Amino acid sequence: MESNNSLVAFVSSANLTKEAQCNLAESLVAQVKDGKVDAVTAFVQIKAIAEVCDQFMKNPAISEAVKSAALVRGKDAGFGGAKVGISSTTRYDFESSGVPRYLELIKQKDIIANQIKSREMYLKAITDDQTVIDRETGTVIKIVPPVKTVSQSLKVTFDKA
Predict the structure, then answer these.
(1) Is the pLDDT confidence value at 24 over 60?
(2) For the chain, what are the domain ranges?
């Protein structure tokens, strides 16, 4: 199998637009589909790169350095088909308002969420149709087991050393 230099060429490229990203992804997929690159090898390598990128992007020192540089360069500083700017996010701590009605609604929401979770656990345990009588109304209710779907996904675990 040939080595794949497409990713290296992309990262060192001055063109990092959405279109270039899409083209690179298509190129990498094509190389796997054409048998030029081993599918498992490529998947594990890209997964590793994604995890490195995630760690890099979440690092507070990087965030602060980029914010500082963006402030110096001005609004929406451009680099290779991308713009870097600073945006603001507003969040509200409604519980701090101390409004009794709001706090009561939150408590009810939590109670209902717990009741739903409990009911779902009960339903998961059902293996056959059941007929039950509602004690409050006397209504006969047929309960069928929930439809269960199983899906598969790929899991990659990296060695720690």
Answers:
(1) yes
(2) 6-84, 100-143
